[in-house]
Task: structure prediction
Amino acid sequence: MRINLFLSCTKCAARHQNYRTSRAKVQQKDAKLVLNKYCKFCRKTQKHKEEIIK
Result:
């Protein structure tokens, strides 16, 4: 089963939710998905962390 989530920029003050993706439900409990993605608000490649869609 997959979990839907947003990827939000860690550098923006507003924490914009720039990307929408999914990951496997079975994963380590303390492991968060972190990817380098382009932020159109910062105009740079920044780290994006997951936020689960409820």
Remarks:
- The chain has a mean pLDDT of 86.
- Residues 12 and 42 are 7 Å apart (CA to CA).
- The radius of gyration is 11 Å.
